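re the bet — no i am not wrong, look at it urself. input seq straight from the record:
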Amino acid sequence: MKEILSSLNKSFDSRVRVGIMSILLRSNWVDFTTIRNTLGATDGNISNHLSALQKHNMIKTKKEFVSNRPKTSYKITRQGIRKFTDHLSVFEKLLSS
C-alpha cells in the first residue's frame, strides 16, 4: 500500500487542482470564468492553482480579447494528460487492492 501511495503526484494534492484537471481533460480550451464557476472557488484560489499547474507544464494558457475584454483560457498539455491519468490510475490500484 505504501508503494502505491508514494506514486501519487503531489501536483494534484489539492481538490481544486484535481477539479481543474478534470474539467480540462474533458474539454479543449476552457476560460477562467467557467473554471471558477464550476468549482465555486475564489478568483485568487483558482489563479494560484492554475499558476502552479502551468509552472509544472500541466496546462497552457491563451490570452485574447473578446468584445474588448480580456479572456484567459486554459488547456491541458500532453504531459498534463499523462501525469493526471497516471495519478488517477494510482487510485484505481488502491481501490482494487
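see?? The two ends are 8 Å apart (CA to CA). told u. also Strands lie at 30-31, 59-66, 69-76. so pay up
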